[in-house]
Known about the structure:
CATH class of the largest domain: Mainly Alpha
Low-confidence stretches: none
Strand content: 5-15%
Largest sheet: 4 strands, mixed
Order of helices and strands: HHHHHHEEEEEHEEEHHHHHH
CATH superfamily of the largest domain: Butyryl-CoA Dehydrogenase, subunit A, domain 3
Strand order of the largest sheet: 1-4-5-8
Number of domains: 3
Number of strands: 8
Amino acid sequence: MDPSQPSSTEEHALATIRELAARFEKYAEETDQGGPSNPRLRENIRLLADAGFYGAGIAAQYGGLALPEEARIACTMIIAAACGVTAFTQQQLHSGGGFVGGSRSDDLKQELLPQFASGKILCGVAFSHLRRPGPPMVRAQKVEGGYRVEGEAPWVTGWSMLDSFVLGAAEESGQLLYFYVPIPPAKDALQPSEPLRLAAMNSSDTVRVAIRDLFVQDRCLLYSFEADSMRRSDYCRITGHSWLPLGCAMGSVEYLRSLAQSGNRPALRPTADKLASEIESLKAEAFYWNASRADEPEYKPRALAARTGAIKVALRAAGASIAATGGRAHLLDHPAQRRLREAGFYSTLGLTPDVQSALLETYTHA
């Protein structure tokens, strides 16, 4: 088989995602405005789970689809073009499988990965707080048979849908620990807030979780890293958050094209085509300047340019959609308005100091 050609598994996965995305887009405004725990988002997440999409990056030996990275990126962008809150929430649920899949515990892999791949277990993540300066927000102490964990995880997405989550904590020594936490047996130690009121992704059921006297067994420790490990990981993954904004930009381009056709406005086509060309160029750059090139001299400036470019093109494409629509775009349930909010949200997703500085620098240019 020609390695440059997609496999039948890839073709089937992409066809399935396109079919599901068409459904997601049809109800995107309802999903976006439905509020936390709304049935539309739950249905979308369940459809993705039943299609095996949470096994996209899981090895075939564990029942996953084992899709190559390019195919996974394509799927993410297709979903993001259709419905931002579905794309963001599913991305958070995908992360749990990646953490367990790369862990040191073969027993946990054998136990959990087939259930992730089949959608029987939905696993979220809570570790962004490890980037925050100052005293650790979540602390872990070694005790007999495991760890005692205390603190507050300020951002956990999809809470009411989760069966488990990966929790980051810091030891007194500064070591960063990542635990797999099944929620039902730990519920007395986990106190979720009311869903956070968000300007974008408000339906994502994102909460703060207070953690009081949580015991985690030794077997559920996935990783133990040096304190500086997150900085290095973030440095190597500068372009890793490019796909959601690029997908959002794709959605705006398709909207402009639909306006051009349905409204007999051919002048919109060159705008859409130029934005589409820029999206493809940025996608290629972001894919090329990935973690495997992190030690090359050009890596940092090129990766930052691709990442900030993805954010800016999402904002510009959404702005073009607003301008092309006119006053109706100010309605809260208009797709152009939704994508503008989504693009703004993506400008802070995984926002490290390097990315923030580079992005702010671009705003000083004409």
